[in-house]
Each structure stands twice: as C-alpha cells, then as structure tokens.
C-alpha cells in the first residue's frame, strides 16, 4: 500500500472523524494524549513549526496558541477544508497545505520544529518521512511525534478485565509483524452504541513498526533522540473519563522528541 491508498482511506474518514472528534468523542486525545504531548513540548513561542498530518487542525491550533507560527500539512482535502474554515472564523495565523508526508514540499531548513500528533504510524514510508523532516528542520530544531505504543499496541491487543469491567492486564501479540497497510476498522468507543451502529467505521491503514525499527529509522535520518513519554491517566482523570483508565495498566501511546544537530 502506498500513500495514494492511504490518502483515499483518510479522505473517506475525514468527515465523520471531524464531526465526532470535535463533538468530544475522541476522549483519549482530549483527556490524555494531547495534554501530555503539550507538556513534553519545549517552549515554542516565536518559533516556526510544521504540524505533519494535521487533520482538522485541533492540535495545530493548540500549538499555535503557545505562540508558534504554524503550518499544517495533511493528505485529506476534507480535513483541510474544516481546518481552514476554523482558521477563517478564529484566526491564529495558521497556513494549511495539502501534501504528502513522504515528500514534504518545503525548502531545506524552513522550520524550527515539526510536530506529528498520532499520524506517523499511518504513513506508508516512515523512513522517508523522517528523512524529509530532517531536511526541513533548521539546525538545532526538533521533531516531536506521538504514535500508538509499538510495545503495548501491536497489531493484536486485548484488555483483560475483572468481573467489574475494570482493565487489569493487557494481552498482546504480533509485535514483530511489520506488514504494511493492515486496515483497522473502528469508531470512537465513547459514541453511544445506537448512534455508532448507524455510522460507517473508520478505515485506517496501519504501518506498525517495532520499537527497534522506530529508533533505527530516527537515527538513520540523522536525528538524536532527546525525550520519551508514555502518558498514563492520573487517578483523577481516570475517574472523570473511565475510558482512559486502561492506560494505568500499560501505556497506549508513545511520545518521542528528536533533535537535529
């Protein structure tokens, strides 16, 4: 599967993804993953950043609100339409560009930093993406990205729950299966079941890599790993949003920051 197939899947997802994530159903993102990502992010006020795989722009806007001048790049026109509409209604100085992460079409050393919120595990040629990120970063710049945790969310994962329904363990398999473009189908779990039954599930090609492969690709691209993060819901957050309580058993997300010398 190449980027054109990936683009078709994400364009098909984009309308409902935007509607339901903006309606508050992407609880993992809003309650845990994005706040943890922003906490790990170094100060970006006054810097020029690229958000790679920006989707409908919610996370791009979160970074812009920290004082960065942002460009959002995405492969799906519907995501970009929503992002641009929001920018027109509430300007933050964000430019949104349609493009492919494998051929990041900006001049060398354009950006002080690059972010990628939960997008890189869905890109077909991650090695090429990382090389492109290195090229468009200024010396001293950094990439920070989040992905499904390769160790704890490989192609096969199941929560083990006790008699009360509380997650107490995780069963995983197929960690070493790096087959490209396995399509996963699901909707946000917090959507009411009656409504979810009327929706076409998201169709998401996934390109799982082991942790060793991720580290190797980062190093091969010329980047130096600076920080790791494995978000865990606090007891307070888990009580408020029980859907994320399983992250107290084992992490679901991995955050990585890597710099260009």
List the helices and strands and how they pair.
Layout (H helix, E strand, L loop, with lengths): L2 H20 L4 H14 L7 E5 L5 H7 L4 E6 L2 H13 L5 E4 L12 E7 L8 H11 E12 L7 E6 L5 E7 L8 E5 L6 H4 L5 E5 L4 H10 L2 E7 L5 H6 L12 E8 L1
Parallel strand pairs: 1-2, 1-4, 2-3, 4-5
Antiparallel strand pairs: 5-11, 6-7, 8-9, 10-11
Helix pairs in contact: 1-4
Query: In whole angstroms, how far apart are the ends?
Result: 33 Å
Structural class: alpha/beta
- For the secondary structure, the number of strands is 11
Low-confidence stretches: none
Mean pLDDT: 96
CATH top level? Answer: Alpha Beta
Order of strands across the main sheet: 3-2-1-4-5-11-10
How many domains make up the coordinates?
A: 1
CATH architecture: 3-Layer(aba) Sandwich
- Shape annotation: globular
Give the percentage of residues in beta strands. 25-35%
Q: Give the biggest beta sheet.
A: 7 strands, mixed
**What is the chain-wise order of helices and strands?**
HHEHEHEEHEEEEHEHEHE
CATH superfamily: Vaccinia Virus protein VP39
Give helix % range: 25-40%
